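Service request form, structural biology core

Requester: graduate student, group of Dr. S.
Request type: structure prediction, single chain
Budget code: on file
Notes: please return the result as structure tokens.

Sequence provided:
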Amino acid sequence: GELARGLIGSAIATSTILGVPLGHNSSYAEGSAFAPPRIREAINWHRSTNSITEEGKNLKDPRVITDVGDVPIQDIRDCGVKDERLMKFVSDSVKIVMDQVYI
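Core staff response, request fulfilled:
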């Protein structure tokens, strides 16, 4: 955000996490809806793991990876939004993330 821009200047993160906790169409289990927080947990941020990649990039550096949060899937569905419109919202969210500078 703006604070980071002021501190380190404008830069584009090489990777961005946008969670899409979607599992309502699963025929058996909705486990995929829990993936975004589990991915963040795995990347983030265990003290016992090394946050430096093989290429020497530090995953804790916001210029390398930025987390922009989750699309509020369940809140949108609770408002009665149909799946087709929900998928358009997700697609539009991805486009916005890809077009933005977050740092």
